[in-house]
Amino acid sequence: MNIYYAPPSQINNGFAELLDQEAKHISKVMRAREGDRLTIVDGQGGRYQGSILMITNDAVQVKIDKSENVPPSDPRLVLGMGIIKKRDRLEFAVEKAIELGVSEIGLFRSERTIKKNVRMDRLESIAVSAMKQSLQVWLPTITMYHTLDDFLASYTQAEWLVAHEKVEKQDHSFTDTDSDTVLLLVGPEGGFSPSEIDKLTDGGATTVSLGENRLRTETAVTAFLSQFLIQ
Amino acid sequence: MNIYYAPPSQINNGFAELLDQEAKHISKVMRAREGDRLTIVDGQGGRYQGSILMITNDAVQVKIDKSENVPPSDPRLVLGMGIIKKRDRLEFAVEKAIELGVSEIGLFRSERTIKKNVRMDRLESIAVSAMKQSLQVWLPTITMYHTLDDFLASYTQAEWLVAHEKVEKQDHSFTDTDSDTVLLLVGPEGGFSPSEIDKLTDGGATTVSLGENRLRTETAVTAFLSQFLIQ
């Protein structure tokens, strides 16, 4: 795959500079040469094509000759997820959420979360890889919040949907929305507590059932986001 | 979690025998005692409750006092998946498919699959764990087929749906079906080849788009099955 990532700060005046892992990959793994063409995404909607001007182990300079700008998703889907204890499952949830088109991910400790350190650097690296792998051009942000309340405070204007087993009336049209931002809330292992559910619905959230099966958190994340794939 | 698995052959006349890993787990990890209650599922719709009569490291005898029979899913969802090269992703796809309610899984090598040995014993073990974890009582079968054709030959009466990027007309009602068995076909990394797609559609398959994003095989599996969660 000939797609590389460079943040906008490394792309100026028709030239791009690839550093660190990207540069190492190009020089040592791909064994690219001057003149080889590649594609660069900047994580902010920009996709560029160009030719390599110069390669060292630490930096690759590219002359850009084609560029396009892809608008962000509309509506934006924001995933709010209770932290998953097992790292591989958490990383999986993040990777899948990005493939499925999430714009932002918020991780929070909820009442039922076992406290744990999270390797944010690994998650950010996974986010970059997932963006490139899925041919996307917007790099989702991944933010850790101390509490569910802190997370919700950042999205007061969004439409809130929360995955919950007990749903009084299933509104099948939850994927049709007028909002430009939709929050998809998935509780931690064990689900949201009753008081958390009350707080969410008091705040205007709609509860959404993901069917009859009991789903692990990472499975609920993918199932929830998958409802928005087909419009 | 107090749920254990014993195939029907180990359940007779009001008694159940748990062996191997199940017995070890009960005796060494749970340190259960005579009289403790537990739940047993037989993978064929049977769910039993009873009390432990006798425990050794190798076998646990249970006296059953409650039993129920859960009918199989209707329609049955059968997943046909090109083999995924990386073992952790393949195992993930199997685990997620079972949580999401699949009845049977067929793995096949298609034109674009890199040939590889598959640890079927690990997949079967994952299937048992996923069944128990998701509180289900039917144990999905996992079968390896030499070719896509061999797999399809086992399901000539089913409705065939194949996930494909290029879909002329998206029929949104593909989750409404009259068939008792629906085949969900997901190609290997790289997707199905054009000739495989032709063979499938000539055989009556409907192509279904899973949206605009490029999805890894295991993500496509979860996205596809997730469309059937909410009826």
Automatic annotation (TrEMBL), chains A, B:
InterPro entries in alphabetical order: Alpha/beta_knot_MTases, PUA-like_sf, RsmE, RsmE_MTase_dom, RsmE_PUA-like, tRNA_m1G_MTases_N
Subcellular location: Cytoplasm
GO biological process terms on file: rRNA base methylation
Domain Ribosomal RNA small subunit methyltransferase E PUA-like: 20-64
Stored Pfam families: Methyltrans_RNA, PUA_4
Record keywords, A-Z: Cytoplasm, Methyltransferase, rRNA processing, S-adenosyl-L-methionine, Transferase
Gene Ontology CC entries for this record: cytoplasm
Gene Ontology terms for molecular function: rRNA (uridine-N3-)-methyltransferase activity
Catalytic activity: uridine(1498) in 16S rRNA + S-adenosyl-L-methionine = N(3)-methyluridine(1498) in 16S rRNA + S-adenosyl-L-homocysteine + H(+)
Keyword Iron-sulfur: no
Documented EC number(s): 2.1.1.193
Domain of life according to the entry: Bacteria
Location of the Ribosomal RNA small subunit methyltransferase E methyltransferase domain: 75-227
Protein family per UniProt: Belongs to the RNA methyltransferase RsmE family.
Main function: Specifically methylates the N3 position of the uracil ring of uridine 1498 (m3U1498) in 16S rRNA. Acts on the fully assembled 30S ribosomal subunit.
Protein known as: Ribosomal RNA small subunit methyltransferase E
Organism the protein comes from: Fodinibius halophilus
